Amino acid sequence: FAMAFYEAILRHQHSQDPDLARFDGEVHSRLVGEFASLDRNRMRISRLEVVKAHHRNIPAVSGLGPVGILRGEMARRRNHMPIRQLMQKASLAIQALKPVFMMSPLSIAQFLPPGVLEFDLL
Length: 122
Hints:
Layout: H1 2-16, H2 18-22, H3 25-57, H4 65-75, H5 83-97, H6 105-111
Helix pairs in contact: 4-5
């Protein structure tokens, strides 16, 4: 009885909606699988695009400006500039090299001077 009941409902729905009558579950499953495969390929390609875009934004190595300040601090063995001061002077170079900062709100307040850096998301 249950099978006949549901088949009657299906026939009624097919008569009401011609698109539903043309639906093929196997074709649909195949298309879903193809889409998933293309989506995984696109994500792999996107990772490469992100790396390339980041690489293009890395500042040129020079002895002047924020990059020079940063290189000078990296070359020192002691008496480093305080982080807050380094962020004030070389923030553009630091953010170009490392665009993602993972910091607690307390660390942000302690190490990043207000208004020096801009972030897309906090």
